[in-house]
Amino acid sequence: MTRPPHRILIWFAVLLAGAVVAWNSRYSADMSFFLPSRPSVAQQVVIDQLQSGAVSRLLMLGIEGGDAVQRATVSRDLAARLARIKEFVSVENGAAGSLDVDRGFLFRHRYLLSPAVSPQRFTIEGLRSAIAGSIDLMASPAGILFKPYLTRDPTGELVQVLGGLNNVSQPRSREGVWASRDGARALLLVQTAALGSDTDGQARAIGLIEEQFAQAKQAAGVPQLRLALSGPGSFAVQTRALIRHEVMLLSLISMLGVAAVLYFVYRSARLVGLGLVPVFSGALLGVVAVSMAFGVVFGVTAGFGAALIGEAVDYSTYYFVQSGSEGTGNWCKRFWPTVRLGVLTSMAGCAPLLFSGFPGMAQLGLYAMVGVATAAVVTRYVLPDLAGSESHLAPMKSSSTRAAAAVFGTLRRFRWPTLALAGAAALYLGLQHERLWQPDLSLLSTVSESEVALDASLRADLAAPDSRYLVVVPAADRESALRAAERTASTLDRLVADGVIAGYDSPTRFLPSQAVQSARRAALPKRDELERRLLAASVESPLAADKLGPFLDEVEQARQGPLLDRADLNGTHLALAVDALIMPRAGGWSVLLPLHFAPDRSNTPTASVREALAGSDAVFIDMKAEFDALYSGYLREAIRLSLAGLLAIVVLLAFALRSPRRLASVLLPLVLAVVFVLAGLHLLGVRLHLMHLIGLLLIVAIGSNYTLFFDSEGGALPNGTTLKSILIATVTTAIGFGTLSLSSVPVLHAMGVTVAPGAILALLLAAMFMFGRGER
Amino acid sequence: MILRCIACLCLFALSVPSHAAFNLDQLMQDLALNKGGRARFVEKRYMTLLDKPVVSTGEMRFTAPDRLERRTQTPRPETLQLDGDLLTIERDGRKISIDLVQQPQARIFIDSVRSTLSGNRGALEKDYVLRLSGTPDKWQLALEPRKEAIAELMLRITVGGRGNQIRHIEYLQADGDRVELSIEPISDQ
Question: pTM for this one?
């Protein structure tokens, strides 16, 4: 108090430093908001897949409008343009020839790749049976594909190598390029170089696609064509854009609303501006704290700031209104302890959120705590000096006080009906408790239904992988990862034979381990020996041995040739397929083996797969089940943390109030408000999720500020200025959170619809139950 | 090869008595009335690489306009289904789907057969020179490619019929291979 300007300077310096930190912070609006900060092994796989998995880098493109020839022309041109850009690692549109390179590679290396290659295969009996099989194949329409290779590959190794490849159905074609089943769209599948978690990179890639598409259709003279685009990257970019837009808009609305209310009361632009100073300080330092603690600020956290404006402005309201009659010194003595207790209560309520494994929740908790505390401290220690001694309001006129007292007196009469109603609501909630919470993570997603529908239709038409079911095997290095995949594959082969799974993908199909490759190479006989056996095997065969010179040459070539390594795959699509399935992780490598189940099965036999893999180091993962489990884990945790927050508030108040009776009277309105809001939302058919739960906690944390003021008056009607300040504070809080309820971001919307009515209810219930308490 | 499977179905088409003057238009009209049916087949494939023909036998079923199912019984069980442009082959417990649009070679076979089955003389004559010979009791329709792209693969297709039934189809491929398909209808009554 001795050197006031000093304080203002310190505050100003802190704000400046904070602004620098906030300016340089990383803001994110992607899925990581939902991803656990302490993942299990299975969850880590899910995270890796979402952030860097090959599937997360796929963008699906559909060209619509015009006729099939125009679409195909633009598809070819677009594919050629994108293939030249380094932001895209692969572009496929199904044009003939694009798979020739792959087939050439597979054929060239068939003796290292074919699972049928073994010493038995090259005995006289083995050769006889393999060649007979190939000749039988010539009788089949499928033979048309293999006839050109018969003299070079009479044992049919290419058939073996390709066998699994064709299991995955290909998209339909129109005019030589991929098209949707109804033929109305030409389709392309693009893989970005940017990771799925790199929203900036995804945004750049999507921008490039749109730009190249515009040029391609211009070049083809068909401006009527349209581009439909979907994929995880596209969702991330759209979500971020939406959140950015909404954070700006909501903050603006909230700010204008609050400023309008304050101007109505203060009639002074200067006071309104000063009143917002603690708010800005709180919002800024909240962001700074989150940025420094987490390294990244989620867009949703920043959006929460819009609500905080309405809450944090309360403290300056208390100061301006209440100090009017008392003077600054008296305000500090008489009101500050109550405000301080309110702030501490809010902080205690939010503190348990910091321990959440759900980073979104932890950020909201930290942001709210720091924001509220900063606003209060700035109000107490900076605002009085900043505002000067003249900046007080006149006390509320006695007529207004009498009017408010009359209203509140009327409210009192409804105590018992209200309690009865609360009892009924509690009973209703008890009966409905199984159906209250929705165990579905998609409720938190901002992606709209039409976007989901577009994604599903493109995905179905492209037969693009969704990789829901995976087997993951950890390993120390690439070679042991490949060997682990081969070990697991033998288990999976049994499951395929038993009909449990329809098939699976493995990187070893195109890149077997060095061990398996050298075993296969060692199985190849020397040329003389092979020739001798071939002669014996061909005695009665319609395919005479003397026509099979190319076969002898190529086996010999393979026998003396090098083994394959990852670099040999460069330039083929197989490289992508392999990279998607074997990836480095912290401390080693992971192999992924996506499983395919027969689509017509009503229930997927995941238990049989788990059973078969039990005891090995392979882990079966159902991505959707993992997500659902993740979410129900969050929900359970949120319930625990909310109860902990509630407990912290109770303990704090018990300690501060030192009276069970006062404690009960402070808590009763809050508990009732929570019950009414919860029952109301459920009755209105709102599907409650964990953000509603956090909202309930905030009702208690914020509402306690109002009940504490009523409590400090000891049951008498708070005097005019106190009443006025509480009314304004409630209105501004309701505006702040009410603004959030306008949001189309489910996380923000949920908190808005919960806290805004909750704050108003808390005030009314406090008046109903606490005012006049002392008279009886 | 795909042509063989399908062409045999032509026999079902020829159910109209040949009382009218026997010419190409009449034949095509009869073919167009094809509504489908069942038949046994024996297929012999003579390949220059092989000293003996590869023989396969089985049963096939056609449903107008473009659905075909062929079940091979020997030498190895195999099921083939053609639905529009999608050819699915099931063999040794494996399923292979082939989009005909991506297989120009196979496409030639299919297109010629479809046009024959549907009696689409215009479409046939765009790709082939048609030559009808013989009598209504023993006729032969020869298709000779007009286009280079087809001629590179196929020298000639000969469809033979007796009365209102197709009994025999022969493909003479450019690589010297030859396929003979004999067809015996199974009456469903």
Answer: 0.73
